[in-house]
Amino acid sequence: MTQPIPETAEHRAALTRAITEQTGLDEAAIERVVRAFYAAARRDPLLGPVFDRVTEWEHHTARVSAFWSSVARMTGSYHGNPMAAHLPLGLGPAHFARWLALFEATAQAECTPEGAAHLIERARRIARSLEMGIAVQRGELPPVRRRGQGG
């Protein structure tokens, strides 16, 4: 039986370097994707009104860039609760589908093919998770039962 590799700063840095080498995703690429995505989303008839609530765009861009850096590059730079941030926005399936379509197009336009595929795979999981989590919170879906839970 192999022992799990302990989570250390050195291990995390090595993962980040490997991902960057494989995908071309560095901090500048992540920020470029985030900025290009929001430029498109803010003009979008469905998504634009959702983002009208944002008043500090530089702060928002930095926070979302940190999120994607953590998700895509394993940097650990984001500390927050995406579900809590999205729950009060009144998002539905159409919002998630449009967000994903715009994000995928942006990633493909701004990244290497490997970087785009890496971001898109994670974006699809995040969209699915947020959409399901919000539906559960609204009572539209029953909570997911995990193994070992009674009931």
From TrEMBL:
N-terminal signal peptide: none
Transmembrane segments: none
Alphabetical list of Pfam families matching this protein: Bac_globin
InterPro entries cross-referenced by the UniProt entry: Globin-like_sf (IPR009050), Globin/Proto (IPR012292), Hemoglobin_trunc (IPR001486)
Keywords for the protein's UniProt record, in alphabetical order: Heme, Iron, Metal-binding, Transport
Protein name: Group III truncated hemoglobin
